[in-house]
Amino acid sequence: MSLRTRETIKLKLKINGEDNCFAILPGDRLSTVLRREGYLSVKTGCYTGDCGTCTVLLDGQPIVSCLMLAAQAQGSSLTTVEALAQGSELHLLQKAFLDEGAVQCGFCTPGMLLSALALLRRVPHPSEEQVREAFSGNLCRCTGYERPVRAVLKAAAATEESSK
Amino acid sequence: MSNSGEQQFRVVGRNLWRVDGRQLVTGAPAFSDDYPQRGMLIGKLLGSPHAHARIRAIDTSRAQDLPGVHAVLTYKDVPKARGPIGRRTDLFNRVPYTRAGQDYPEPSPWDYFLLDDKMRHIGDRVAAVAAESEEVADQALKLIQVDYEVLPAVFTPEEALKTGAPVIHNEPDVIYVKDPQRNVCSGVDVQVRDVQAGFAQAELVLEHSYYSQRVQHAQMELHTAISYFDEHERLVVICSTQVPFHLRRQLARALGLSIGRIRVIKPRIGGGFGGKQEMVIEDICAALTVATHRPVRLELSRFEDLTAARSRHPMRIRVKTGLKRDGTLIANEMIALVDAGAYGSHSPTVPTNTGNKNLPRYRCPNVHYQFEAVYTNLPVSGAMRGYGTPQGSFALECQMDEAAEAIGMDPVEFRLKTTVRSGDLDELSPRIYEVGSSDSAEIEGWPIASCGLQECLQRGAEASGWSEKRQAYAAYNADKPLIRKGIGMACLSQGSGVAGIDQANATIKLNEDGSVILFIGAADIGTGGDTVIAQIVAEVLGLDLEEVIVYAADTDLVPFDSGAYASSTTYVSGNAALNAANRVKADILKIAAELLEVAQAELRLADHQVIAAQADKRLSLQEVTMHATYVLKEQIEHTASFVSPVSPPPFAAQFADIEVDSETGQIRVVEFVTAVDAGTIVNPPLAIGQVEGGVAMGLGQALIEELVFDERGRPLNKGLIDYKIFKATQMPKFKTILVETYEPTGPFGVKAIAEIPIDGPAPAVANALKHAIGTRVFELPLTPERVLRALDKM
Predict the structure, then answer these.
(1) CA–CA distance, B377 with B156 (Å, rounded to integer)
(2) For B252, left (φ over 0), alpha (ψ -120 to 50), or beta?
(3) Which candidate from A42, A94, A147 shows the least CB-CB separation from B685?
(4) What ipTM is given for this predicted complex?
């Protein structure tokens, strides 16, 4: 029934740079395990891969963690939003989201931040179209996407500034 | 009247980070499901497979015997009533209630039971299970044996009204239902003067019927609740609600507990849009805790959330308009047939708004509004952003375009001529709210104090390139090209809270460093309500936003508030906070006056200081508060209240620039302009976000969203894969213009903004479609199929 009474698998993986080892059930979704282990930035809004609120980076690539069995993440390296801020210093993307009013209810925000992070690592100075394309797996019902898109463009511009 | 230059604000009107921003961008615990309890069980619901059925027999023994199952509840386990039920004193068996989160006594029918032996829509609650894991709970649901007597079902109001139609609420113990034997849930019939006389005087009379479909909130966070008994045997419910206090009261009723034994905690909410102005799952989740004495988590699946929670009322609205050839409106009549779904919920009030948030926008002496909301065996229609207004605005704004066209007048010019101005009266609303269905001529109208609609129309037309595009597209379309172009518009009005009913309270406690703790019952559901209310308090007390610490919506800690609905938060709850802040300020000034030995009237509070300008004396706020705490031995703390006798309407004009593929029927919205008068804007990015988000949701209603059912009432949208909402790649270019007016009854001049942006996209796009293809589509959504039919290509 529960982890205490069932045969479990040992899952070893890196999350936000730290080694972890969890006891999981064979049928556990990755999103379920992450939430159970306290990575609460990983949200769940559908369990069918449609909404993107459970987005995490798997070896740098955004994936929907509800559609992956936790066991399939054996040995991989994950990034969640918990990794973005350094202590109390927010990441540029996080600041830009707040500056631009890109956060309303905030439920889709972690997934959007990670999609944006993956994009900016791949394309440091994206076009608006590229930002929208990067968000195509993240549904948001509050913002109409305009402010999140602007926030990513602003963060990209700020990165450019700071690297000059 | 513009406010700029009259008052200089320090905090109000500024682009400041939301007070919950850091929490939300770091993924810190925030939402109901982020607060699991030790030993928590998983709750699940068994939904009815039939649209209309009675349980002949139900056997839960196999489910109950499954290891790990702690409770299986059916209608047999429903708590018995302890006293008289409403006005009825003869029924002491089970407790009828409404789950619609409204003030007491709710205007809604009490037609719901915690669990019942009759099923009224697919997905209606048959049984509830609490088990040690999701897996076991799912298995237990499969082991429940139900023998159903399947009853004939009805899926449209028209069918439900027919003589001999199956009666959906034929149980003897429902109350406050208008005419259960006819399936009529609720209705209103109000008239200002005499429309028939008006039609007789008119030079032109137009009559059309418009249909708005059933759409769903599709908020990202599913309905989620966690309930448990705390160490004092009090029932705690952490849940995704817009109405913590109404929920607490209704829970007490449903479970037979006293209100004081229940604590409702509203954490951050992952989108509400009205869907959470309702006790969708909290009653049954808490019942499982009562049954097991264990913490229980209940989260709907997306399928349950889409198809068995709440959705927007489908409406067919007949609009009849009489006018003169110069554009003067003589009579406007709207008659709405409303699909209430299986339970009454918000059906008495939502369709009321359909009339009274739309018709008073026009200067028209004779007005008639009538609706009948009818039960069907479909999911429950409930509150949804706009609360009946979008259905009415679709009908009326399309009709006004038809009227303009009939007399050969430009649609914007027609609105400039016919819509209300500051100082006009809303004669319809008081007839609905104050006297029900009377058409008494002596009733005084509600004055419209601030109205920026003219400016919205002018600035919106300018920003959208209205005049040029209107002409250019007409010329361009004349050759019938593959891609047709159109520009259409609509003007809108909404309200700021429910007049005379919504109540808010705020408590402010002063810390000895001058910072404050603000306790509010207002329910921020993602709109930024906590932030704008804190900005109002910071403004009054001369503080920075960071110095206002907000505790919101834990019923044990904060004073009563009606909750987040009817665009009430900034106006109603903001006013309560303003009043409380003014009392705290008065205390501060009184103490400072004594310390500075100047008259209190000469003092002002600004920028962390109490300043006596003439005497050139000043004290820091901290000096005053330390003195109060440690010398005077006083805790400065105030609670203040606010109820508004009026509901000042915000106004807007919206413009859609579209392209239509005449071969596929596909509509693409290229640009969408909103000019909105919401009074003073407290936080511009948050306000603009409300507009853009509302427009996106409204475009979904205009173009792609609809819950559809098969001939047996089974939902065909299984999830977000086939209930599509727009993605980032599908958005038009947005232009948003904040037309600031000053609403004298609002805190610092504010009015509401949350709902109005959703009212215009459907009529603006429909009017643009007419401009593009020359034919009107009267039904939503404006699918390629409907467009092709309108083009005679299907």
Answers:
(1) 8
(2) alpha
(3) A147
(4) 0.97
CATH number at residue B146: 3.90.1170.50
Q: Return the CATH number at A42.
A: 3.10.20.30
Q: Which structural domain, as residue segments, surrounds residue B86?
A: 41-152
Output the CA angle B520-B523-B526, nearest 5 degrees.
Answer: 125
Q: What is the DSSP letter of B545?
A: G
**Are A102 and A159 contained in the same domain?**
yes
Helix, strand, coil percentages, rounded to 5, for chain A: 40, 20, 45
Q: Which domain holds residue A141?
A: 92-163
Span between the terminal Cα atoms of chain A, in Å:
57
**B578 and B490 inside one domain:** no
Dihedral pair phi/psi, residue B650, rounded to 5°: -75, 155
pLDDT at A115 over 90: yes
Q: Note whether residue B7 is domain-resident.
A: no
Q: Is residue A86 part of a domain?
A: no
pLDDT for the residue numbered B18 = 97
Domain CATH number, residue B739? 3.30.365.10
Between chains, do A107 and B695 touch, taking CB under 8 Å as contact? no
Structure confidence by residue, pLDDT tens digits, B493-533: 999 998 888 999 999 999 999 999 999 999 999 999 999 99
The CATH number assigned to the domain holding A99 equals 1.10.150.120
- Residue B685: list chain A partners with CB under 8 A: 99-101, 147
Rounded CA-CA distance A102/B681 in Å is 17
- Do residues A61 and A97 share a domain? no
Which pLDDT score, from 0 to 100, does residue B35 have? 97
A-to-B residue pairs, Cβ atoms closer than 8 angstroms: 187
Interface check for A78 against chain B (CB to CB < 8 A): the answer is: no
Domain presence at residue B186:
no
Nearest-CA residue of chain A relative to B726? A139
For position B90, what pLDDT does the model report? 44
Q: What is the pLDDT of residues A49-92, one digit of tens each?
A: 999 999 999 999 999 999 999 999 999 999 999 999 999 999 99
User: Which stretches in chain B have pLDDT values below 50?
Assistant: 1-5, 88-92, 437
pLDDT at residue A3 in the model? 64
Q: Are B325 and B448 contained in the same domain? A: yes
Tell if the CB–CB gap between B25 and A105 is shorter than 8 Å.
no
Contact A107 B270 (CB under 8 A): yes
Tell whether B538 and B653 lie within a shared domain.
no
**Binding-face residues of B in 260-299 toward A, CB within 8 A:** 268-273
- Could A139 and B22 be called an inter-chain contact, meaning their C-beta atoms sit closer than 8 Å? no
Q: Is there a contact between B21 and A103 if contact means CB atoms under 8 Å apart? A: yes
A154 part of contact set with chain B, CB < 8 Å: no
CA-nearest residue to A87 within chain B is B26
Give the single-character DSSP code of A65. G
- Please name the residues in contact with B594: beta carbons below 8 A apart, sequence gap of 6 or more: none
At B2 the pLDDT is 41
A142 part of contact set with chain B, CB < 8 Å: yes
Check whether residue A13 and residue A77 sit in a common domain.
yes
